[in-house]
Amino acid sequence: MPYTDQVVVSLTILFIAGLIQGIFGMGFAMIATPMLGLFLDYRVAVILAAVPLWFIATRYILQRRHYVWESQVTRSLLPGIMIGSLAGVVLYGLLPVGANYALLGMLLLVSAFVPLALRHLRWIGRDTSIRGSKPLGFLAGVTESLMNVGAPFILLFSGISNLKRRQQMLALNLCFAVGKSIQIVLITLFIPVSVSWVHVGLAVISSTIGFQFGDRFGGQWSEVQFRRGLFIFLLIMAVAMGLRALTVATQP
Fold first, then answer.
1. What radius of gyration do the chain's Cα atoms show?
2. Which of 40, 89, 116, 214 is a plausible cystine mate for 23, CB 3.0–4.6 Å?
3. pTM score, two decimals?
4. DSSP symbol at 132
């Protein structure tokens, strides 16, 4: 695919992902990263989705900074996310591309079934009680900086801790903002990625426009239908990433 076509298609994908993130408060990286990975190099796909998500999540954190600093969720998750993000960047630099695609496919498959798993965790109780923050925060940090998909482990943490919706959104955006900060800085300094910063800038603009449009319609669309659609999408993308891994592995 010619470079100009790659830019146009990638910006369209990022606009759609930003739109969905604005409407439902989640889904950006799980949609953007695998779709970009279908026709771009894995490392380029990751960084193109990472930078816009950092802007979106950081904006969320700054707007609610007083609540963020005082929340027990922040204090419990932050150490694990930071350490995990460092480990994830190391893996990002060391793992072969085919392995990264395969891992992304497996994580998307896990992501598809996380809501089903959470339904079976309701026996834990109804009161909010922080559980599993260190291991799940660490895994979220690793997968966020390696594949842009730390959300499944944050959702598991939210489920077993019985977090309220506001606390869950805080946990997700904390993971995105902190994980992406570490990821972007370390990759920029130490790991060469063949992507133009003009392309990255356009990616941020496209995603932000989509997010702003979506944010205006938040709460007006059925989240149940969105989750059903996301489930099917994740299954398809999991298979696609597996095939992409095989294709990359068989290339000379």
1. 17
2. 214
3. 0.92
4. S
